[in-house]
Design a protein that fits this description.
Strand content: 5-15%
Structural class: alpha+beta
Helix content: 40-55%
Shape: elongated
CATH architecture of the largest domain: Up-down Bundle
Number of helices: 17
Radius of gyration: 33 Å
Number of strands: 13
Bound molecules: FE2/S2 (inorganic) cluster
CATH class of the largest domain: Mainly Alpha
Largest sheet: 8 strands, mixed
């Protein structure tokens, strides 16, 4: 079975992981600051006094020494790492969300520096009490449009980042409309609070400028200098990015072939996802290329040997979804030689669908216990009965048996006519899976007794069943329409163990018993079989030697913990 180690964690570069984590955490700190700031604005819908009370609480944290240090460190870190990420991109086709996030992120400082200098800046430089009376006087109505733009830039940039981070998490997907609602409600209320308080303040408060003419000139100068400095940084970053792109265009190309798709002469240094985007090859990327969602993964069909080792971030994600050695994350893989890949997930996949696609997509070899159960003689029993009765009885039987399986920790793999196949031990050690399968068989025996009691008026004779149980290695995989975005393919088990369990169930009829549990399963479960089950060697089709099996006329006689 595949593990993280197959993708070489530790052998790849670790700093990008730390950088991605730092960018995420610094972003979260800034987003938390922005959210509380917005909520504080929204309090203006009640009154300026309430707004100010909220501000006092908030600034007690954000203007304390630790709060200040954390905020400045988060802002600098996020900005520097954002620019670094921009420089790493080797295509301007980023996907609309990432494109908007980047553009808004680059615009934020233009408006933010003015806002910060006009509030905390004047407080620190000239001792101005920048409470809400002052802030509203300074910003309403002349700065109202600028503030609205700043709020939209900050909020959209942060929300896209959060969405990329959380999009594959089931709890987030489940509450998506709630989160969308919050994402609209918070800035709307904030701006309404700002406008309401601004109007009220303009009517009620006679405010004289706390700045002298010289101080005003200093602050205007600071506005201009900081804006020019930032434009300089921006132009330099774009210049470096263009230079890197030009240098890449003149360096030797590699050939990337997509199975069933185009063959592309690609730039060395681009990630496979960037190559797809730059050449309009449809490619899923729910997290926007941040090594979080795993939806961009590709199977490498040729050129695996020349690929750089997976970074720690990539190895972690691939390990989490149990992907094999020839599967890589397209957003992290920067090939240096020709390669052939096939994309694995539908290009229009969204986070909700990606959350349902798991390691079983690849096929995982695992030791589990398989249980087969079949209703005996049902075809004969259903002769001459109304179809309604037949379906009712069958549903009673299958439904109650499925409950017994699930109650004991099994997974109902499929219903096959009047039979059931179940898997035990997918998420627990083999021993526990084997114990649960035996417990399920025992419970199913009891369920059948109860069912026969309740249906005795309806039936010519009691229902009978056979159960076969065996433990061993199987391939667990999603078999079916895995490329269809609308549904995850059903999970099933394949292999010799499944065949043996099925044949054991068939043998119960021949042996005249209700249950046959292989000695392998009994040993794996660590259970003493007891006196009420018999051990015997049974010929199983496909096996060269007889198999040791424990059989009993009543599944309720099986041992338990
Ligand atoms: S796009 Fe999400 S991991 Fe590559």
């Amino acid at each position: 079975m595949r593990t993280d180690a197959d993708h070489g964690p530790g052998r790849g570069r670790t700093w990008p992981v730390k950088a991605a984590q730092l960018r995420l955490w610094s972003g979260l700190i800034l987003f938390a600051f922005a959210t509380t700031h917005f909520i504080n604005h929204a309090m203006g819908l009640i009154s300026v006094d309430v707004m100010q009370a909220g501000q006092d609480v908030r600034t007690a944290v954000t203007r304390s020494l630790p709060g200040t240090v954390i905020l400045i460190a988060a802002a600098v870190t996020h900005f520097v790492l954002g620019i670094a990420r921009f420089l790493k991109a080797r295509t301007w086709r980023l996907g609309w969300r990432s494109g908007v996030q980047l553009a808004f992120g680059l615009l934020i400082p233009i408006f933010l520096v003015r806002h910060v200098l006009g509030t905390r800046g004047v407080h620190e430089m000239f001792g101005v009490d920048d409470d809400y009376d002052y802030a509203l006087w300074a910003m309403w109505p002349n700065e109202a449009v600028g503030q609205a733009i700043l709020m939209v830039l900050v909020w959209v940039h942060g929300c896209i980042g959060l969405h990329h981070w959380l999009s594959a998490k089931p709890w987030y997907r489940r509450g998506l409309w709630f989160w969308y609602g919050l994402a609209v409600l918070i800035p709307t209320m904030a701006y309404m609070g700002f406008v309401d308080a601004g109007r009220a303040n303009a009517q009620q408060v006679q405010y004289d400028s706390p700045l002298t003419a010289d101080q005003y000139a200093v602050i205007q100068n600071a506005f201009a200098t900081s804006a020019m400095t930032y434009y300089g940084i921006l132009i330099a970053a774009v210049g470096v990015w263009c230079a890197l792109l030009i240098q890449m265009r003149f360096s030797p190309k590699i050939v990337v072939s997509y199975a069933g798709g185009p063959t592309i002469a690609a730039l060395r240094g681009q990630s496979v996802l960037e190559i797809s985007r730059a050449n309009r090859v449809p490619h899923a990327s729910v997290c926007g290329g941040r090594a979080r969602c795993s939806t961009c993964r590709v199977r490498v069909l040729q050129g695996l040997e020349q690929l750089p080792a997976a970074s720690e971030a990539e190895a972690q994600v691939l390990g989490r979804v149990g992907s094999p050695a020839n599967v890589r994350l397209a957003c992290q893989l920067r090939p240096v030689a020709d390669l052939t890949v096939s994309t694995l997930l539908p290009a229009n996949l969204d986070g909700r669908q990606s959350a349902r696609i798991d390691k079983y997509l690849w096929g995982v070899e695992q030791e589990v216990t398989i249980l087969f159960c079949d209703l005996r003689g049902f075809t004969k029993m259903s002769e001459g009965r109304l179809s309604f009765d037949v379906v009712f009885i069958l549903n009673q039987f299958l439904g109650r048996m499925a409950e017994a399986i699930e109650d004991t920790g099994g997974f109902v793999d499929k219903f096959m006519g009047d039979g059931i196949m179940a898997i035990f031990g997918m998420d627990v050690p083999t021993a526990v899976g084997a114990q649960r399968a035996i417990a399920a068989a025992r419970a199913m025996g009891g369920v059948l007794d109860g069912l026969n009691q309740s249906l005795r008026e309806e039936l010519p004779g009691p229902l009978q069943m056979g159960i076969g149980v065996h433990t061993g290695a199987v391939i667990l995989g999603r078999i079916g329409a895995v490329q269809r975005a609308e549904a995850a393919a059903p999970l099933t088990a394949l292999g010799e163990t499944v065949n043996v369990a099925s044949r054991l169930e068939s043998k119960t009829k021949e042996l005249g018993v209700q249950v046959a549990v292989s000695a392998v399963t009994m040993a794996a479960a660590g259970l003493e079989p007891g006196d009420r089950v018999a051990r015997q060697a049974v010929e199983i089709r496909g096996l060269s030697v007889p198999m040791d099996v424990y059989v009993s006329g009543r599944a309720t006689d099986l041992p338990g913990n």
